[in-house]
Every structure is written in structure tokens, then in C-alpha cells.
Amino acid sequence: MKKYIKESAAFLTQRGFDSPEIGIILGTGLGQILEKIEIIAEISYNHIPNFPTATVEFHKGKLIYGTLEGKKVIVMQGRFHLYEGYSLGDVTFPVRVMRALGIKRLLVSNASGAINKDYKKGEIMLIDDHINLQGGSPLAFKGVEKMGERFVDMSAPYDKDMNAKLEEIAKENNIRLHKGVYASVVGPQLETRAEYRYLSIIGADAVGMSTVPEIIVANHLGLPVSALSVLTDECDPDNLKKVDIEDIIAQAGKAEPQMITLFSELIKQI
């Protein structure tokens, strides 16, 4: 893997991806932040050596480099998922490449369903902790100890300082920001009523199909990370409605300006 990481990083460096400070992973329906970025270089995933290719229709599949609030950022416009047939190594490979390019912090976003009945669609949740229900680990491979500590501590996987700043920014900008636990499942099917009840019982406030693998690898790399979930639907098993993917995308777009404010102001401060 080290060889592949070096090849990908070298390729991107040659194409102008020069010493990014912050990495950003954009979730489903979340791309408006690109309008605030002064883009210097961009490249499709399928042109980058060793990179997987995004197959989900609403994930663009581009790596973008530019400046945001005076900082050099590298943005994943679209991410990879287990449900696309990729391994956890594939899903997290871009995080390792961004780290090799020089990022010192990682910001992650996703679209998720609200399990907590006090949370409403169109609102945002700051991830304080997570539950890995994807059935594996991106660190479970031979030779992982050559790339970092095998037994990574996960007592505080999300950076406390950045999370505290995000909470303060939310208050200053009158943004309702929940704080809770994100459960990551495989998908791509949505959950049954019984599964939503189970998720609530085990302590999940929101559920999605991404993010946790990238967080685990960020911790493996010693990379401070914060993550926001845009809540796109309400998962009340007693009043469950058929999921409308177009509505999920619409809800993500509606809440995104607040997410952009949170991330932009955080980037300004770090």
C-alpha cells in the first residue's frame, strides 16, 4: 500500500496539489462549498493512479485543490462506500493519500438519517462518537503496523478542540447544532423499522453508510478530525415513510449553507 500511496501523491503533486493544510470529504448532496473555494487544480478520480472510481450518481468523483479562508485545502467531491463493492482499504485510501500530500487536519461531512426523535431533517449533528456496524476495520490488514499503531486508541476519535470551536461557531451564527452518536452501516438498502429501533436502543442518534472508516484511518495517521452529519430524513419506526432519495438530496442542499458556515469559520480559526 505504501507504494501505491506514494505513486498517487507524487502524481497529484506534479499536477499542482502543493502542500494542502486541510482535507475535506463531502457527503451526498453536499457540494456547494466549492463555490467558496478558489480552485487551483482539480482532477477526476479515474485519472489518479491507484484511486477507486466513484460509482454513485450523486457523487461527482473529483479531487479539488484550492484556497478557502486563506488556507490550502484539498476536497473530495464524492467519496467511496462499501456498498459500491469496494474494500475498506479502497474506501480509506484517499485519506492516506491526502495525509501523504501534507494535510494536518481532516473535516468530514455526510448525509444521514435522524434516529433521535428530537432531531429533525434539515438540521445538523456534530459527531461526538460513533458505532461501527460495517462488519470490519480498515486497519485489519497484514503489515498495518508498518504504517502506524495497530491497536489505535478510539476513546476520543473526534478532535475535542475543533468540535468545541464548531459548537461556538454554531452559537454565534444561530445554527441549531446537535451533538450525538453516528452509526455506520453497510447499506445500500435503508433500514427496517426493527433496525431503527435497534439503533436507538444501542445509543445511535443518526445513521449513515460512510464516515467511520475514514475516521478510523485518520486516527491511525494521528490526524485530528471533525465530522458533521446533515440530517436528511427522520427515522421514526412508528411513523416510517417510504424514503425518497430526491428529497434526501434536497434536504442536504437546504442544510448545506449552515454546514459551509461551520466549516468555513472553523478553517478560518485553525
Automatic annotation (TrEMBL):
One Pfam family hit: PNP_UDP_1
UniProt keyword Glycosyltransferase present: yes
Keyword Glycosyltransferase set for record: yes
Keyword terms, alphabetized: Glycosyltransferase, Transferase
Pathways involved: Purine metabolism; purine nucleoside salvage
InterPro entries in alphabetical order: Nucleoside_phosphorylase_d, Nucleoside_phosphorylase_sf, Pur_Nuc_Pase_Ino/Guo-sp, Purine_phosphorylase
Enzyme Commission (EC) number: 2.4.2.1
One GO process term, biological-process aspect: nucleoside metabolic process
An annotated Gene Ontology molecular function: purine-nucleoside phosphorylase activity
GO cellular component, one term: cytoplasm
Span of domain Nucleoside phosphorylase: 21-268
Function: The purine nucleoside phosphorylases catalyze the phosphorolytic breakdown of the N-glycosidic bond in the beta-(deoxy)ribonucleoside molecules, with the formation of the corresponding free purine bases and pentose-1-phosphate.
Annotated family: Belongs to the PNP/MTAP phosphorylase family.
Name this polypeptide is given: Purine nucleoside phosphorylase
